[in-house]
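Lesson 9: reading folded outputs for more than one chain in a single document. The general rule is that every protein is listed as its sequence immediately followed by its structure tokens, and records are never interleaved. Here is the first one.
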Amino acid sequence: MFGLIRDILTSDGGSLAVVLGVLILIFYAIHYITKHVTSIKSDHSSLSQDVSKIDNSIDEIRKDMAYLKGSLDILKDSEALTHPLYKSHSPISLTELGKKVAEELDAENIIANNWDIIQPILNKDLSGKTPYDIQQYCMEEISVNPDRFFKSEDLNRIKKYAFDHGRPVELYIRMIGILIRNAYLESKGIDLSEIDK
């Protein structure tokens, strides 16, 4: 390369100006390319943020659809309507039948077996939330994503119980969600009556 520059400088038409002009062109080309690469990286970062927002929106829609499907399954179960496991007025609580089913299912033991999984999730997701928000979360999020809150053997036990009784699994998971709500509120020193405040 240095030989080429020396040849240009010693040639009849070569001069320092030509070499400087070529070097300036090279530096300008490097600057131009770097500027566009930086712009492309910036655009990519913005695009990644937009895609992340869309993914979050899709996840929310998926959760809502799963909750609606579970609600429809429960509504199709005439037994759930005539003999409900939990009361529909707030604060939602188990009926006498719900308490009996929770005992048969050994729901308290299921919650105790999974409390080391459940409590950190609730602490993270429910920080600063009202008692009503806690109630809604425990009934909705737990029924939509039960595998996030329960070990597989306990979740399979709930599913088997639902299958054996010919009822939708969401019915039992929501019932357990009420018991989880109670345990969580108690652990935070919040009275159930505060849900309606």
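And here is the second record, again sequence then tokens.
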Amino acid sequence: MRKIFSKTQTFFICFGIVAQLSFVESIRYFLDRGAWGYPRLGWVIPNRGLDLGLFELSSNLMLSLHAITSFALYAAILAQLGIMLYWNPSVNPSVKHSESPSLVASTSKIKFHRLFGRTIICVLLTLFVVIALILNAQLIHRLTNQILFGVIPVMVTYGLIKAVHAIRHRDQTSHIDAIFLVIMCLNAAPITRLCMGLFYAAGIPTTFLMQNHEPTVLGAIVRTFLIILILFFSYLSCDRLKRNVQPIVFLAAVLGVAIWVV
């Protein structure tokens, strides 16, 4: 299990963790000014009411909840990944605890991994998807952007369901491939932010990527294309592209449709 990731996959996982730091500026700006956005790109979301049918909530509150649930889901999955990679795969959970004291900890760790996984899906995933889709419908106005931003929670849900299905069939390789898909989809926004931040630092104008308080269509297209490339080369690097081609093809098809409706 420890060697199941290729060097390319390991690089993108680490790169994604570093990319999450790109949100520090937005968090600091929110704490100082009470508004969410990416000020370096001239993108600030004004606080306004969001109509949720029976009641109304402020966009600042919903964006704060989105940030919290996104980070919580991401951190929980990384924690699960750590548990997965560092338990002893040779331990047989069916062996009774009394037969060997060393098996107790490993069996407990596996049980915790399963319980934590259920919590992730039933609580964190549900909150993340619901809040993300509400924001997608309420704060994003361009259809292409709605499609390309809406596909992220869909892919995260697909990846976690696939991970559960794989582990129930004792397919650890497919399980971790699905987890990698989830991690990369959750890293879609921070990786794009980091790339844009590097362009900004290099003196390349990036303000054209934000208009009317939301990313331009080009920004959403670039983000989706980056994730497709990352998934393609990552699965190719570990000789598992064929068994993981479905999500890549689906993302490419969604990207094609989004470009067509521009």
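What the second record shows: Residues 67 and 128 are 9 Å apart (CA to CA).
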